[in-house]
Write a structure and sequence with these properties.
The protein is 45% helix and 6% strand. By secondary structure, the protein is α/β, with parallel strands linked by helices. It is an enzyme of class 4 (lyase).
Length: 476
């Protein structure tokens, strides 16, 4: 085909939005026939298969994205398989002269992208990639010695001392029609054929009641946060019984809102000076950035201790019934159990409770952090390749800038401090709802408590066991 007959191909990944999508904007600017594709890739080497809750979200997010594209004259093509092979095939079918995507930061994903960019160069296709999902790309933030940061505070300080965060791009008002392939438009698989939604049984009812996946839901959630909890975020973020957090994490995970848009909306609300509480929220965005920088440097973050001395740690294997008790929220400790039940019902857990539940599994039950990371990977709607393992390693003490292993969250103390009136506990543990505000935190052996289990482990003894194991690691 003549060069004037070439088309554009945009490959969307974890950037399921039209707003502030540099790859899509660059393609739209060319004005050539445009194919937009999403590839479900669980076959390329090293690509981690998606968890069940993430699959549920992805189904609804792609549905919303397809509707948005169609409203602008475009269409979403769905393909499944090894992404490199799929994109090569589709680029050939549509006579693509230009290939666009937004960059990814995990090693398997970068390998696919690098191979594809090399193939494009060999086949007279211009491949362009863009910064879209991180405010600061990993190779741009380095210590004075030229290496990666291993401690969060100086990392974030270096981020803020550099170039200002770019302005977000407006969503295109219209898009070029899709590129024809052979006798018709590029073939697309049906979303239903991917079977992303759970069945037999369908456990997603609570997810549907809690979340509105898609770009519209993300914009609504961001507006609600800035109109409400943002001004008291510093204290509100620690109280699980209130709406004190942004709950933007799944939207950021799927790229339904960009961090650049979040950053700009905060500045728009506070043009002169960002209040301290809102600054704390921005530092949480910084922690998300730090997690991705850790993954960039440590590609095996989900399976390998960042601190190699933890390879010698004497983990104990829980019995099937013990692990079930933790997963199902039946440990006998209300703060942990409420969190685990919230996770199962909604696909999300308050961060304060996440830390307590993770600490209980790792330290009181002496269970390898990878066991918990795998459960969260399957049940969290916001599980991503960086934050999920990085935060589990933080609790375990095996990660970069990690919480010391000897910091052991006491679930009773946490409950009394951050849910004093038991509002959170009552919401997710109805069998304790009638207890008073004192008894609900330690309900063991009380009359009228029907069906709630006795503690799975004793806190003092399990704490000492964990500290002894850590001391043996230090002495080894």
């Amino acid at each position: 085909m003549a060069s004037t007959d070439k088309t554009s191909l945009v490959w969307l990944r974890d950037d399921l939005r039209l707003d502030d999508n540099p790859a899509l904007t660059a393609a739209e600017t060319l004005g050539l026939p445009l194919t937009v594709v999403y590839v479900l890739d669980e076959e390329s080497a090293g690509i981690r298969p998606l968890g069940g809750a993430v699959k549920w979200w992805l189904h609804h997010s792609l549905t919303a994205l397809a509707t948005s594209l169609e409203a602008r004259g475009s269409r979403l093509v769905l393909r499944r398989g090894p992404a490199g092979d799929v994109i090569r095939q589709l680029a050939t079918q549509t006579h693509a002269g230009h290939l666009f995507w937004n960059r990814r930061y995990g090693l398997p994903e970068r390998t696919v992208d690098a191979d594809l960019k090399a193939w494009a160069g060999e086949n007279d296709i211009e491949a362009s990639s863009f910064q879209a999902n991180l405010l600061f790309e990993p190779w741009t933030i380095r210590t004075g010695a030229g290496g990666p940061y291993k401690v969060y505070t100086p990392f974030w300080r270096a981020c803020l001392a550099g170039e200002d965060v770019r302005e977000p791009l407006a969503a295109p008002e219209s898009l070029p029609a899709p590129a024809p392939s052979g006798r018709g438009l590029p073939a697309s698989e049906t979303l239903s054929s991917w079977r992303l939604l759970p069945s037999s049984p369908d456990w997603s009812g609570g997810l549907g009641e809690t979340w509105k996946p898609g770009e519209e839901g993300a914009a609504q959630r961001l507006g609600d946060f800035l109109d409400g909890p943002a001004d008291d975020y510093g204290t509100g973020r620690n109280i699980p019984g209130t709406e004190g957090t942004s709950r933007l994490s799944p939207y950021l995970r799927f790229g339904e809102v960009s961090p650049f848009r979040v950053w700009r909306e905060i500045r728009n609300r506070y043009p002169h000076q960002v209040p301290a509480d809102v600054g704390i929220y921005r530092s949480e965005l910084g922690w998300r950035e730090f997690c991705w920088h850790l993954l960039y440097t440590n590609p095996d973050l989900a399976t390998k201790n960042v601190r190699p001395e933890f390879d010698r740690f004497a983990w104990e294997s829980p019995t099937a019934s013990e692990l079930d008790a933790w997963q199902q929220g039946r440990t006998g400790y209300p703060f942990v159990d409420a969190g685990m039940r919230q996770l199962w019902q909604t696909g999300w857990m308050h961060n304060r409770v996440r830390m307590a539940a993770a600490s209980f599994l790792i330290k009181n039950m002496l269970t390898d952090w990878r066991v918990g990371e795998a459960w969260f990977w399957d049940t969290l709607v916001d599980a991503d390749s960086a934050s999920n393992p990085a935060n589990w390693q933080w609790v375990a003490g095996s990660g970069a800038d990690a919480s010391p292993y000897y910091r052991i969250f006491n679930p009773v103390t946490q409950s009394k401090k951050f849910d004093a009136a038991g509002k959170y506990l009552r919401e997710f543990i109805p069998e304790l709802a009638e207890l008073d505000n004192k008894a609900i935190h330690e309900p063991w052996g009380l009359l009228g408590v029907d069906g709630y289990p006795e503690p799975l482990v004793a806190l003092p003894e399990s704490r000492e066991r964990a500290l002894d194991a850590f001391q043996k690691l230090k002495d080894a």
